[in-house]
Amino acid sequence: MSDATTNEVKRVMTENPLNAETNPQYLRSWITPNRYFFSRNQSRIMTEPIDIESWSLTIEGEVERNVTVDYEQLLKMPKVEVANTFECSGNGRSLLRKPARGNPWTVGGVGNAVWGGVWLHGLLEEAGLTDSAKHVAFEGFDKSGRSSGIDFVRSIPVEKAMSSTLLAYEMNGEPLPEAHGYPLRGLPLGWTGANCVKWLRKIVVMDHPYEGYFMDKVYRVFQEGQQPTEGDPVTEIPLKSIITQPSNGAELPRGRIAILGAAYGGEDAIAGVDVSLDRGNSWREAELIGPSERYAWRHFQYVHDAVEAGELTIMARAKDASGATQPLAASWNVLGYGNDGVEEHSITIRVV
Ligand SMILES: Nc1nc2c(c(=O)[nH]1)N[C@H]1C(S)=C(S)[C@@H](COP(=O)(O)O)O[C@H]1N2
Ligand SMILES: [Mo]
């Protein structure tokens, strides 16, 4: 995967497993093309592709009856298509003022796609939840090398599983690419990437959250001196905005400068984006452009007439439909999750 093409469209942080972020200029389209979509893997992508003839998904645990579906049956079920933006919890980590452990993501650990699949609640209703059903665990096929061969398993509350979680077999009109979870991945809409388990083979309904490395050691927001389990697990994507044009550090001639970006807020639709050209002293409303869908990012544009030469800092601040405003600064945590700061995501250009 780390050929010239990958390097042009993505910045590779580790090759094996592949962890690579999309270069910001490829985040200017509303749909992030599959081959440009960021990659985040805890273990090697399987060398043997999954044999679709023998693949099936089983739902078991706190259910009245186990349900097993194969690929063909899945494709025959009523299909839904939903636009959904997801972001890796560590996205923006390297922009934090105080360093935090983990892959040095900047802004490209995010993407938007139209996902085709089936609602998870349909299958859960078929299986029939018992009264003790509390969490729904997703098991992937991959084994993590680094963490002594443990499976990638994540669980989410049953309410989220029943209300707005997709099982996706299609990404932007194509079968899910192998790198993104073929044949099937879980997709709790508006939630961070870690909750979107790839290469699904089993769903277990449990009477408590799943306990394991990827639930209890990482993907939790905690402070120094705390145990990871003292912090909350990462769930919904925080409200934030990124600037995709101009490039940070660009040198541009005086005159009109087109500022482009994307704002996203997990389960809440974006209501507006403001831009500041004076380090947050004053704000002007950007124009929202492109499709508007609840779980998808909203693109924005603002044209600034730069009359003076010199350094220019550009900031963007997102607002969502619930009335929330993106914070000026991110709140730090040990693993550097959820960097949603306006200041951390500002860019500086030179006007000449
Ligand atoms: N089976 C499995 N699912 C997984 C992961 C993984 O390592 N294994 N990584 C998770 C994380 S942390 C993220 S951010 C997303 C990344 O999805 P992508 O590689 O399709 O962009 O997948 C999630 N699902
Ligand atoms: Mo992630």
Description:
There is one protein chain. By secondary structure, the protein is mostly beta strands. It folds into 2 domains: 3-233, Sulfite Oxidase, Chain A, domain 2 (Alpha-Beta Complex); 240-351, Immunoglobulin-like, CATH 2.60.40.650. 9% of the residues lie in helices and 38% in strands. It contains 5 helices and 23 strands. The strands form 6 sheets. Strands 4-3-12-7-8 form a 5-stranded mixed beta sheet. A hairpin with a 5-residue loop joins strand 3 and strand 4 (67-70). The radius of gyration is 21 Å and the shape is globular. The model has no long low-confidence stretch (mean pLDDT 95). The site of molybdenum atom has 6 residues, from loops.
Helix content: under 10%
The total strand number stands at: 23
SSE class: mainly beta
Bound molecules: the ligand Nc1nc2c(c(=O)[nH]1)N[C@H]1C(S)=C(S)[C@@H](COP(=O)(O)O)O[C@H]1N2, molybdenum atom
Question: In the CATH hierarchy, what is the architecture of the largest domain at level 2?
Answer: Alpha-Beta Complex
Looking at the chains present, what oligomeric state does this protein adopt? Answer: single chain
